[in-house]
Amino acid sequence: NLRSADILVINKVSGADKDDIARILQLKAMLNPSAQVVQSDLAVTVDGPELLQGKRVLVVEDGPSVTHGGMPYGAGWVAAQQYAPAEIVDPAPSAIGSIRETLDTFSHLYRVLPAMGYSETQRAELKATIEGSGAEVVINASPADIAVLLELSLPVARVRYRFEPVSGPDILA
Q: What are phi and psi of 102, to 5 degrees?
């Protein structure tokens, strides 16, 4: 893809190691010196941030990103850090069934709950894990509307993020 690209987008640059960005740019210079470069970030926001302040929150992340993607946390954790909850609840003590197995398998996860709900049973286990967590609010950074899908009794603050160019040509115009 890099060899044929007109534009190379390097995302999440504010959190990236400068040496990693330099290596990407070196590779780009070797493989496609004529490609333009856009460096960007993702701005993380929450619908209803007032729900989080001073509350015990449970962070639900996009399942594949934090499990198979190897990330210890995602946009939900980042959002939680911005809005001053009293506590980020560890989902492990309340995890049951396949959700417990997922947390055991992906031990790199840091106090986040991957959204795993591919079957009726798994969705029920996810709901029971969330509602048994002791959280007052759920931060949902998964693409699914878990408030509706799981019929949660807890309030849910939905995480959103948007692309923000930092440098390079305007690709949004």
A: -65, -45
Between CA 154 and CA 99, with CA 149 as vertex, the angle to 5 degrees is 75
Model's pTM, two decimal places?
A: 0.81
Share of the chain above pLDDT 90, in %: 75
Among 64, 67, 75, CA closest to 140: 75
Q: So what's the pLDDT on residue 84?
A: 87
How far CA 9 is from CA of 15, 28, 38, 74, 160, in Å, comes to: 15, 11, 5, 20, 20
CA distance 168 to 137: 39
What is the number of alpha carbons within 13 Å of residue 75 lying toward its C-beta?
23
How many beta carbons lie within 10 A of that of residue 162, not counting itself? Answer: 9
Supply the Cα-derived Rg of the chain in whole angstroms: 19
- Measured CA to CA, the distance from residue 14 to residue 132 in angstroms comes to 36
Which amino acid, one-letter code, is at 72? P
The kind and range of the H/E element at 82 are helix 75-82
Q: Could you read off the pLDDT of 78-120 as tens digits, one per residue?
A: 999 998 899 999 999 999 999 999 999 999 999 999 998 789 9
Mean pLDDT of the chain: 93
Contact 143, 62 (CB under 8 A): yes
